[in-house]
Amino acid sequence: MINQKVDQYRALHPDAQIVSLGIGDVSRPLTPTITQALMSAAQEMGTTEGQRGYGPEQGYLFLRELIASHDFQGLNISPHEIFISDGSKCDSGNIQDLFLPSARIALANPTYPVYLDASVIAGHGGPLVDGQFSKILYLPCNEENHFLPHPPTSNIVPPDLIFLCSPNNPTGSVIPFPLLEQWVHYAIQHGSLILFDAAYVAYITDPTLPHSIFQIPGADKVAIELRSYSKSAGFTGLRCAYMVICEENPLYPLWKRRHATKFNAVAYPIQRAAAATYTQEAKMELQGQIQEYLSQAHRLKSLLLSKHYDTLGGDNAPFIWWKIPPQFSSWQYFDYLLNQYQIITTPGSGFGSLGEGYLRLSAFAKLDAFEVAMQRLAALPSLCA
Ligand code: PLP
User: Fold this and answer.
1) What was the pLDDT predicted at 59?
2) What is the structure's pLDDT at 153?
3) Which of 23, 83, 112, 227 to mutate to test the pocket of ligand 1 (most atoms within 8 A of CB)?
4) Average confidence score pLDDT of the chain
5) CA 237 → CA 86, 234, 241, 321, 365, distances in Å?
6) Number of C-alpha atoms within 13 angstroms, CB side, residue 291?
């Protein structure tokens, strides 16, 4: 729908310079250390000694050891509890293989759309009633609860699988420790599995916020965690991510079997490139990129605040959740910004009914496009003008 509208606008205004603040993809190049690791590994495979065929389905040990020691330091995660994959998007859909069609899924409203669509494809949706799938438990996220999903009350049938995304796409909210503890206790009490998607963990700047669900005691039995190199290291075009599922989790053997049966490992050069992200040089390069994205987020947020708009996110996440003027729907405001300012955004209603009244802005904008967008938005009328 967004592309359709932009194409229509382009057809009518072929000379317009349209810039995007809607982009959910990274815009900075791979860093030199990562590119070098990728090339070296490819060259290695072109030699007789370095020839490699199928890799271990779960991922090379050299990468899983680095993950355990760097990303989960002090959390007692061992390499055999880590499953390298080609993306968190795939992982969040594939996990549904472990659940019967009768399973009940809970997800936030608004949400990263893949959780909902993958659940529906797996047969967990049930009939559509008033625009919502009747078997899905939608966890309302709104201004009152700071767009943070809370465990359902006791009179609701407990879900089997709960999707939590923190830092959140689209709202930029981050689940704090007390709420994450409530969720883990809820899952223990009701026998639910939490899928904790931490694809944007690299953007957390507040050290008091949880970075991993395994920081909560008991989570090893009831949670799995997704991490991805896509947004932390610019791997959206390379494809590498991982799932952590602990041996204490009853689903561990089933996932291990599923992964080994249906997946044939991420390419060796890609895993070498992922391993290179843990070197000192790469860490510095990547911190620089993340700071650039976050500084774009801060500038956008400050500009909107100076015009008295309410926003969420942008401090510990690359997304800003922008409360738009009440007389507009999110699609109407999308049209307004495209027509008046030639800026592409993402309407909140695309993430769920409770996204209505909001737009998602992304800090992943290209450097030059971002500056143009900032200049144009400076002319945006103030909310209380
Ligand atoms: N999880 C969330 C919350 C995302 O927003 C995205 C990408 O936009 C993904 C996962 C996809 O990650 P990957 O590129 O590893 O498939």
Assistant:
1) 98
2) 87
3) 112
4) 97
5) 10, 8, 12, 26, 16
6) 6
**Burial degree of 121 (CB within 10 A; 0-12, 13-18, 19+):** exposed
Percent of the chain with pLDDT over 70: 100
What's the CA gap between 330 and 272, in Å, rounded?
42
Q: Confirm whether pTM is higher than 0.85.
A: yes
Closest CA relative to residue 214, chosen from 248, 241, 240, 189: 248
Q: How far is the CA of 384 from the centre of ligand 1 (A)?
A: 36
Task: For ligand 1, say whether the CB of 159 is within 6 Å of any of its atoms.
Answer: no
Residue 385, pLDDT > 80, answer no
Q: How far apart are CA 371 and CA 91, in angstroms?
A: 35
User: Distance, CA 25 to ligand 1 centroid (Å)?
Assistant: 9
Ligand 1 contact, 93 CB (< 6 A): no
Rounded to the nearest 5 degrees, what angle is found at the Cα of 115, between the Cα atoms of 111 and 116? 80
Q: What is the DSSP string of 124-175?
A: ---SEETTEETTSEEEE--TTTTT---PPPTTSPPPSEEEEESS-TTT----
Mean of pLDDT values over 279-297? 98
Match 């609701």 to its residue by tokens.
156
> For residue 2, what pLDDT is reported?
94
65-98 pLDDT, tens digit each = 999 999 999 999 999 999 999 999 999 999 999 9
Closest CA to 30 of 364, 277, 241: 277
**Ligand 1 atom with the shortest distance to the CA of 90:** 16
Å from CA of 89 to ligand 1 middle: 5
Model pLDDT for residues 142-151, shown as the tens digit of each residue: 999 999 999 9
CA distances from 130 to 250, 316, 353, 375 (A): 36, 34, 11, 41
Token pair of 11 as six digits: 């057809």
In this predicted structure, the answer to whether residue 278 has a pLDDT above a threshold of 70 is yes
Look at residue 35 and tell me whether its pLDDT is greater than 90: yes
| Token pair 């993950």: residue | 67
Task: Confirm or reject: Cβ of 343 under 6 Å from ligand 1.
Answer: no
**DSSP secondary structure of 187-239:** HHHHT-EEEEE-TTGGG---TTS-S-GGGSTTHHHHEEEEEESHHHHS-TTT-
Q: Is 24 in the pocket of ligand 1 (CB under 6 A)?
A: yes
